[in-house]
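Thread: Newbie trying to understand structure tokens

Hi all, I'm a second-year student working on a class project, and my supervisor (Dr. K.) asked me to get a predicted structure for one chain before our next meeting. I've only ever worked with sequences, so writing a 3D structure as a token string is new to me. If someone could post the tokens and maybe explain what I'm looking at, I'd be very grateful. Here's the chain:
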Amino acid sequence: MSNRTLRIGIHGFGRIGRSVFRIIHERGTADVVAINDINPDTDNIAYLLRHDSIHGRFRGHLAVDGEALIVDGHRIAVTHLPHMTDVAWQALGVDVLIDATSSKASILSADAQSDVAEFYVKTHAVYGADDINTLIFGINENNFDPRIHKRISTSICDAVALCPLVMLLEKAYGVKSGFLTTLHPWLADQQLMDVNANPEHLADDLQSHYALGRSAINNLIPKSTSALRAAAVLLPGIDDRLASLSYRVPTNIVSSAVLQLTLGAPATRAAIIDVFRQAEARQRWPIVTSSVEPRVSLDYAGSPFSVAIDERWTTLQNKCDLRLMYWYDNEWGYSSRVVDAIDLIAQGRPH
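---
Reply by user tm_fold:
Sure, no problem. This is what the structure looks like when written as tokens:
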């Protein structure tokens, strides 16, 4: 591969797919050349990219020419095929295929990848696949080698926020046990009014299967979370030491979480805060940040950080019982790490 700009294909142009596209466009470090989405209306795809109720108007010149988007003069092929492997990604010159669907069933096989693109990035946690390298910044980005790691999972937003905090505390003090409570904005598969339960929720969330069919705008909906299972891919056994609970909350962006931990060694509140501030000072990527300002959720909308610790609520009791409260933009912050993965590929590929 030459030193030309990486050419990106995006399969699934929903919330994450469009956020990834916007970040790539803003950075200008890669070129999106192809988009596949089951929405059959290319004009509607362009409309949803141009106007976003959360992230605002697209910062670029956007037009439609048949089955293509023209963005700042660059042509991007658009297809509407139901299956990822139906798209001629290789013929379109795609180097990196981003699978931005939430479907765990659509993971591209290693055999299929050779006919599709050199690199495959799945924007979801992947379990039990030894040939897919889970990449979470703050954990293992320094071990990433694009000569070896061709199939990548960027995990889920909850794990991307949680793992760097747990890793820092594990190294400094050890983590014996704990409890994670997350508050997650509604998702696109929820409804404004009470509806029948979605069968897709049944396999993952039996306890909250029916509850997730209730009105998203009127309710706090308790549910299980896969945050710890996803974190355990890179932090083995963490799901045995920690328990968890989640709420779907009636907001449209920015997650929050309360993490309660019993540390393995005594600490002070000042020392805990210093652990995170030192990590922020030396980090290469925008992973951890902290604040003492009295902020609310929308103040973190558009934040590129994986996790923002709200130091006002950092408490330590009995020298070992720690409580952290933190925020993360579940779309923009997470998608920023997906684009960082593309940048890692670009920086490490042979020239």
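A couple of things are worth pointing out once you decode it. The mean pLDDT is 94. Residues 7-124 form a domain with the Rossmann fold fold (CATH 3.40.50.720). Feel free to ask follow-ups in this thread.
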